[in-house]
């Protein structure tokens, strides 16, 4: 028996990498598996929360409201709808920094005379920053996947993105980051010393995070 300590809380979790359309059959994407976000949603559900999972990856997870999205623009639109009523936002999605400037309405054909094909990209909005700037009393959690200067970069994100907490991990480290079932996280919170947790399963990271949240 798990005590439903998050009962009555409306929690939004975003998961997976955005897929930025090039044409009706192709996209630009990234390697995010969505596992960290799905674990966050699963544990919040188990603790009795009302969970909305906004995801670009298919998941069997039951007992949560699922909103499927592909692009950063769709993710932003879904969050604009859901965030005002939420108590917590866990922004685990790997949002593409850029999207194709135009999306072709038909499948782009190969040109036999061209060996180089150029796609012009335009910046996606920073969704976390934009949405968190509208917060009333929501608790906002961002992620930082870094390959170097982990703490410096994560600290900057904490301040620039209006987040209450940043969960940072070094994706260059064995057992941490994309596609694996484990993660080694550092939790950063304003006016607190960063706290580094041991390597553990993503589900255990989620349990540790929700324990931390419940102590706030
Ligand atoms: O800036 P960076 O991509 O490293 O920041 C990571 C955090 O910001 C994650 O929580 C991610 O979901 C969020 N993010 C966002 N919109 C972007 C880029 C990142 O919400 N365009």
From TrEMBL:
Cofactor: how and how many bound: Binds 1 FMN per subunit.
Similarity-based family: In the C-terminal section; belongs to the PPC synthetase family.
Organism: Companilactobacillus farciminis
GO MF entry, a single one: FMN binding
Recorded GO CC terms: phosphopantothenoylcysteine decarboxylase complex
Lineage top rank: taxon: Bacteria
Keywords for the protein's UniProt record, in alphabetical order: Decarboxylase, Flavoprotein, FMN, Ligase, Lyase, Magnesium, Metal-binding, Multifunctional enzyme
Shown stretch of the complete protein: 181 to 396 of 396
EC number: 4.1.1.36, 6.3.2.5
Protein name: Coenzyme A biosynthesis bifunctional protein CoaBC
Catalytic reaction equation(s): N-[(R)-4-phosphopantothenoyl]-L-cysteine + H(+) = (R)-4'-phosphopantetheine + CO2; (R)-4'-phosphopantothenate + L-cysteine + CTP = N-[(R)-4-phosphopantothenoyl]-L-cysteine + CMP + diphosphate + H(+)
